[in-house]
């Protein structure tokens, strides 16, 4: 291909331009339409333990979660919801709380109307909302509560709790095809129909279309991509993305990122959750950070200044540059809770911490602020570049403190302060 025939259109690279979906208001947060992709998380506390749940919701919110889902599985947890929302409000935290219902949601909302009123959204699984003759009745009851209290609903089908009667019917129909589908395709179709048919039934019952979010979760990367591509073509409802049971540690991060990045690059997805199994002792907030970093590295949103850092090689003399990169990333993350209010735009700042002369000066010049630490055989000096120009050279034992100071000064002088009236 010669240069004249090269396609320089955005489409050749993939733009991530969002496919049109209906906008849905969840509390004060908008999902879908032209609104940015929203980060969601879920607690793993016993919801009936009010203090523990409030503490974890607050931690998730401070980490950047814009929606938080909690389990509502018994009367004790349903009774706790109003108190949880009230305590969060007293802390100045108004994050929308989503109630996750399985099997008995219709009963709990009937018995605890305060729970129905205080939740910002209901999550319903069409695979276990009811069985046999009770299914339609109990689904209708949940939708009636949503209509009564003006709440949006996520209808979330899941591979692990698929409507077995629907799956069986589709399998029977598949046997009659001239060219039968493979079993995997039939089950994907059952998952998609479970979500879409339930949504259309909710509309028939009187729930507005702009009160519905859909999800159809599986645990395999390629299956998730296939399901959501199809789901996106066949409906205009807002879509929640997530790889269910993604796994622990790097496996969960890689699998979720691989699946969600492909879909979001194609413009599919309005909310996301990274369903990580936490490492023992690790904070629940990791799933929020991973979701934010995924969106930010794709250029879809900005949450906090991101640090470019080299991996290290035989040219680097120590682990100091790695330690500095971690210190810098932790510092800007901690300061963002303040900066996002008083210094809007600071989240777009780019930083570089490099370990030797090979790529150090070049990468540093590309960042708003960059430092090139000395490698093997280099002069024990660390030039600092600000907006492409070398401004100062740091030496000695206080490089970390001085570099952090340069970052803070840059934020103070380059991003306008918002002064409350």
From TrEMBL:
EC number annotated for this UniProt entry: 1.17.7.3
All copies of domain IspG TIM-barrel, residue ranges: 22-291
Reaction(s) this enzyme catalyzes, per UniProt: (2E)-4-hydroxy-3-methylbut-2-enyl diphosphate + oxidized [flavodoxin] + H2O + 2 H(+) = 2-C-methyl-D-erythritol 2,4-cyclic diphosphate + reduced [flavodoxin]
Record domain IspG C-terminal: where: 307-408
Keyword terms of this UniProt record: 4Fe-4S, Iron, Iron-sulfur, Isoprene biosynthesis, Metal-binding, Oxidoreductase
Cofactor stoichiometry and binding remark: Binds 1 [4Fe-4S] cluster.
Keyword Membrane part of the UniProt annotation: no
Residues involved in [4Fe-4S] cluster binding: 310, 313, 356, 363
Pathway: Isoprenoid biosynthesis; isopentenyl diphosphate biosynthesis via DXP pathway; isopentenyl diphosphate from 1-deoxy-D-xylulose 5-phosphate: step 5/6
Presence of keyword Transmembrane: no
Enzyme superclass (EC): oxidoreductase
Cofactor: [4Fe-4S] cluster
Alphabetical list of Pfam families matching this protein: GcpE (PF04551), GcpE_C (PF26540)
Role noted for this protein: Converts 2C-methyl-D-erythritol 2,4-cyclodiphosphate (ME-2,4cPP) into 1-hydroxy-2-methyl-2-(E)-butenyl 4-diphosphate.
PANTHER family: 4-HYDROXY-3-METHYLBUT-2-EN-1-YL DIPHOSPHATE SYNTHASE (PTHR30454), 4-HYDROXY-3-METHYLBUT-2-EN-1-YL DIPHOSPHATE SYNTHASE (FERREDOXIN), CHLOROPLASTIC (PTHR30454:SF0)
NCBIfam families according to UniProt: ispG_gcpE (TIGR00612), PRK00366.1 (NF001540)
HAMAP family: IspG
Family membership noted in the UniProt record: Belongs to the IspG family.
Protein's name in the database: 4-hydroxy-3-methylbut-2-en-1-yl diphosphate synthase (flavodoxin)
Species this chain originates from: Lysobacter soyae
Origin organism lineage: Bacteria, Pseudomonadati, Pseudomonadota, Gammaproteobacteria, Lysobacterales
């Amino acid at each position: 291909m010669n240069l004249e025939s090269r396609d320089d259109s955005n489409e050749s690279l993939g733009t991530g331009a969002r496919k049109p979906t209906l906008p849905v208001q969840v509390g004060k947060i908008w999902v879908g339409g032209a609104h940015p992709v929203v980060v969601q998380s879920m607690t793993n506390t016993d919801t009936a333990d009010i203090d523990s749940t409030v503490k974890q919701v607050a931690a998730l919110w401070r980490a950047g979660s814009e929606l938080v889902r909690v389990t509502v599985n018994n009367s004790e947890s349903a009774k706790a919801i109003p108190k949880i929302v009230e305590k969060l409000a007293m802390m100045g935290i108004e994050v929308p709380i989503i109630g996750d219902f399985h099997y008995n949601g219709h009963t709990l909302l009937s018995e605890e109307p305060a729970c129905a009123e205080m939740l910002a959204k209901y999550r319903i699984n069409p695979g276990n909302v009811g069985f046999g003759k009770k299914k339609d009745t109990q689904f209708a009851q949940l939708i009636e509560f949503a209509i009564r209290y003006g709440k949006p609903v996520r209808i979330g089908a899941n591979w692990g709790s698929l409507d077995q009667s629907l799956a069986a019917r589709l399998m029977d129909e598949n046997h009659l095809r001239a060219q039968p589908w493979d079993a995997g395709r039939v089950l994907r179709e059952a998952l998609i129909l479970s979500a879409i048919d339930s949504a259309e039934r909710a509309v028939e019952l009187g729930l507005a279309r702009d009160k519905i979010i859909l999800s159809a979760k599986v645990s395999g990367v390629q299956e998730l991509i296939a399901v959501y591509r199809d789901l996106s073509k066949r409906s205009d409802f807002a879509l929640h993305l997530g790889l269910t049971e993604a796994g622990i540690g790097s496996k969960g991060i890689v699998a979720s990122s691989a699946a969600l990045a492909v879909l979001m690059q194609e413009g599919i997805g309005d909310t996301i959750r990274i369903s990580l199994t936490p490492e023992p002792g690790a904070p629940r907030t990791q799933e929020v950070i991973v979701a934010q970093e995924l969106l930010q590295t794709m250029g879809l949103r900005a949450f906090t200044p991101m640090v470019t850092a080299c991996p290290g090689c035989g040219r680097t003399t120590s682990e100091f540059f790695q330690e500095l990169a971690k210190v810098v990333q932790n510092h800007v993350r901690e300061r963002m809770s303040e900066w996002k209010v008083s210094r809007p735009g600071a989240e777009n700042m780019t930083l570089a911490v490099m370990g030797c002369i090979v790529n150090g000066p070049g990468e540093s010049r590309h960042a708003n602020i960059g430092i090139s630490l000395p490698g093997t055989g280099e002069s024990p000096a660390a030039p600092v570049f600000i907006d492409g120009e070398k401004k100062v050279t740091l030496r000695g034992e206080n490089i970390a403190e001085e570099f952090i100071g340069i970052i803070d000064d840059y934020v103070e002088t380059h991003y306008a302060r918002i002064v409350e009236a």
